Amino acid sequence: MASADETEGGLTSVDFIQLQHYMEESSLRVRDVIKEFHPGGRYAKYTTGECLSVEGFCLFLKTYLEVEDFPPNFCQKLFRYFQQAEKDGSPKSSTPKEGGVFLRDVSCYFSVLEEGQPREKLEFTFKLYDKDGNGLLDSS
Q: How far apart are CA 47 and CA 26, in angstroms?
């Protein structure tokens, strides 16, 4: 029988431990990987505006975690987790189109889990959400 976490798109403690293990083995940083998904990057075709498709999300994970054989079912579960989190935490007007997930939200999540100084993580996260680069987080 499936647990509430599994049926509602949540992550179990086992999932989180597995994800941490992959992250410990990787030498890449989120800030380096997301560049490849922006216009002009080699994976830009997997983004629509600011959103990643499921294929783009799985490619992001494989690239960031430096694994070719990332389990497809685990990738799908993580994708659904981000979809659910965005649906639950965002106004309808700011939810991703066509079932995607926001690249900045995925990037923020993984950057917080990375090793590093809190100030560095806060600066990176701030820049992710400062869309116009004016040094302010505007309501728009």
A: 23
Beta bridge partners of 52: 47, 101
Q: DSSP string spanning the chain?
A: ---HHHHTT---HHHHHHHHHHHHH----HHHHHGGGSTTSTTGGGEETTEE-HHHHHHHHHHHHT-S---HHHHHHHHHHHHHHHHHHS-GGGSPGGG-EEHHHHHHHHHHHSSS-HHHHHHHHHHHH-TT-SSS----
Residue 117 tokens, joined? 């100084």
User: What pLDDT is stored for residue 18 in this prediction?
Assistant: 92
Q: What whole-number distance in Å separates Cα of residue 43 and Cα of residue 46?
A: 6
- Whether the model pTM is above 0.85: no
The pLDDT assigned to 73 comes to 94
Mean confidence (pLDDT) of the chain: 83
